[in-house]
Amino acid sequence: MTEHSLWRFSRALHRAINDRHFEGIEALIDEDVDWAVYGPIDMFPFLGARHGKAAVLQVIRQLADNFHVRRFERESIMLGVDSASSMLRYSLTALDSDKPISLRVAQFAQFRADKLVNMRVLIDTFDLVEQALGRAIHLPKMTRVG
């Protein structure tokens, strides 16, 4: 049995972000990759949808410019032949402020010929925005009318 594409991709992604070694990740991304990280793009412009290898590599470089991955835990994972989905908890450090950030993400990946062809990531954005702002967000209470 060969190693699943997700494990190679995950190691290469963290090496690119933490060590700025992008060669390994470049080899694992399809030229026509479809990538979307759903979150507050007004606060984090590297989030959002991208298409093509060059655009995705630019996002990974922006992540490396802004964050260091201190730790991550896989809460759950499901592997298919050419797909993977997982719930992850990340502990990051914001490089501009040395501020710790923790977040949960759901990740859905598809591979073809051992290369990433599709990635969708959902971020627990409410908690992330509170951490980025450095304060709690107080929403108005929802009341029943009528």
By secondary-structure content and strand pairing, the structural class works out as: alpha+beta
- Written as H for each helix and E for each strand, in order along the chain, the element string is HHEEHEEEEH
Low-confidence sequence ranges: none
Largest sheet features: 6 strands, mixed
Helix content: 25-40%
C-alpha termini separation: 62 Å
State the total count of DSSP E strands.
6
Taken from the alpha-carbon principal axes, the silhouette is: globular
- Summarize model confidence as the mean pLDDT: 90
Total of DSSP H or I helical runs spanning 4+ residues: 4
Give the SSE layout.
Layout: H1 5-19, H2 23-26, E1 29-38, E2 48-51, H3 53-66, E3 67-79, E4 83-94, E5 99-112, E6 115-123, H4 125-133
Helix pairs in contact: 1-3
Brief summary of the model shown:
By secondary structure, this protein is an alpha+beta fold. The chain starts with a helix and ends in a 13-residue tail after the last helix.
Can you give a write-up of this model?
The longest helix has 15 residues, at 5-19. It contains four helices and six strands, in the order ααββαββββα. 29% of the residues lie in helices and 42% in strands. A hairpin with a 4-residue loop joins β4 and β5. The chain has helices at residues 5-19, 23-26, 53-66, 125-133, and strands at 29-38, 48-51, 67-79, 83-94, 99-112, 115-123. Strands 2-1-6-5-4-3 form a six-stranded mixed beta sheet.
What descriptive keywords fit this protein?
single chain; 146 residues; alpha+beta; 6-stranded mixed sheet; 6 strands; 29% helix
